[in-house]
Design a protein that fits this description.
12 strands, Rossmann fold, 2 domains, globular, 7-stranded mixed sheet, 368 residues, alpha/beta, Nucleoside Triphosphate Pyrophosphohydrolase
Length: 368
Amino acid sequence: MKQDFDYLSFVLRSQPFHYGHAKVIETALQRSKHVILFVGSANRARDWFNPFIFEERAGVIREWAKDHVSDYADRITILPLDDYLYDIDSWLVAVQHKVETVVRTREKGWSDYPPKIGLIGHSKDHTSFYLNLFPQWGSVNVEAFTDRRLFNSTDIRDVFFKDPADTSYTDWGSVLEGIPDATMAFLEKFHKTEHYSHLCEYHEYIRKYKEDHKFRNPNIPYDAIHTCVDACVIQSGHILLVKRKDHPGKGLWALPGGFINPNELLVDAMLRELWEETKLKVTPRVLRGSLTDSHVFDEPHRSARGRLLSHTYRMDLEPMGKLPRVKGGSDAKKAEWVPLSELRSEMFFEDHYFIIQSMSKRARRSYV
């Protein structure tokens, strides 16, 4: 096959790495001199969608490459790629900067002989949207796979996290055929960790939640869509957060919030949830007077529980010399004022970090 690109980039979450990913990488190596692998969702907390952190996933890919690519160290670059939910421009800039950094580091005559850069992937679902976002580069779409070993990561996770008591792997059946040896070795080690037990609990919670809440009712022609409210309360460079006591997101930080009741207005539901989870010592009248913004966050895959919309309200409290008292309540393990400078995506439940970033960006724009 002709090498018609100097560099091909492939964005993969690799949760976990399987033969489908390997097939795309092998095609990229045939079509280009160098392959840049962007391991996506590198900044997320462990959850059902993203159980493995960047270092673990990159390690599996390197182990596979050692056995299948003779000069892999010189032909493959593996980089972390953060998520930027609700901010596609920042995601595009991050990809462009990372690609240009790799190319400029490796190339000596950039201005005289610009290399041909492209993206490669398989257009299978919403995760492949990036293939059409870089018109300045070329793209390669790898055709659908017919080899039955080429499964998707969701199938593998469904089996792997199904039963924490199964240590034999004998019931994995044909799914095993979709996992390279490097991935299998990693999963066998991961199976013995506390992370594995925690994620199995999360998997079972999601399965039962969907069953109980009938997100997929066969008697209706569409899935249920549920509405949540979240409170983004800011004072003196601090934000009010809760640490979740139970699944989903057990042990992770989140905005105070929850589901609306049938007889509530959205803002009333938000104030109720805020009080129940934080016992915030601020009167409802002051909170209503502090409302500065509201926005709907509707990324279709923002929650593993199903289609959930978040109506988020921002309140900017007047500086009072000290922060109002708070105390965790309801399903919150604790409530706490956290400096905005200390927020990190890996601390947060689902997309709450990105909601905070988006609300902050909207606030900055309003002051201009």
